[in-house]
Amino acid sequence: xxxxxxxxxxxxxxxxxxxxxxxxxxxxxxxxxxxxxxxxxxxxxxxxxxxxxxxxxxxxxxxxxxxxxxxxxxxxxxxxxxxxxxxxxxxxxxxxxxxxxxxxxxxxxxxxxxxxxxxxxxxxxxxxxxxxxxxxxxxxxxxxxxxxxxxxxxxxxxxxxxxxxxxxxxxxxxxxxxxxxxxxxxxxxxxxxxxxxxxxxxxxxxxxxxxxxxxxxxxxxxxxxxxxxxxxxxxxxxxxxxxxxxxxxxxxxxxxxxxxxxxxxxxxxxxxxxx
Length: 275
Prior knowledge:
Elements lengths: L4 E7 L6 E5 L2 E5 L11 E2 L5 H5 L4 E6 L1 H9 L34 H8 L1 H19 L3 H6 L1 H9 L8 E4 L6 E4 L1 H14 L3 E7 L5 E4 L2 E13 L2 H11 L8 E10 L9 E7 L4
Helix pairs in contact: 6-7, 7-8
């Protein structure tokens, strides 16, 4: 069973030119032109139509099937993942199938190719990015606004526009990386938000698909800032976090090979069961 995505924003990033070899196959990653709305990730033998299906995502929201898998604990293929690396991981992390396409590379195979040390670099960067987004007090953000924005901006592989579908529309729209970080900054300050974030993941949660690397994690968000802050957060990222409550989400952070300190997208798979 493959995953389906319902809502998404796509990073229109000039991702440069890179190559990775998995199983003897050379994969080339090209940048989009300045007038293009999508980066292309292509293998030399792929058609133009196939290329369009492999655009990097900024924010993607899950469909009902992901939630169904969580509710029934329909555990995905754990035999390709060394779940014993971290016995504290929630079984919900395995409930959504990992494979999205025929280019899927399992965690075990990826570990053989790049090594666990390299995997840890991607996992650590993905964790740091989520914490830098969602683990702040408005006082800290207010005291160093430039630092807050620059830290988030520097995670992205490209400083060019983010584009694609919004959380509440199927129409394409664009937004700069800087505008995105500024919106989050204003959300913290205007609503006097105190947000706590906890991340649960491990190197066994990393895999490859569509010639990109993904780190899957469960995040726990606890927010203090009032109903308006909760409403605005839902509009920004489709995250439903109530005042004083903890909400759990299954998330994947997307990166490209050879750039462990950069990201190209976030995939919010589903709201987790535990609350």
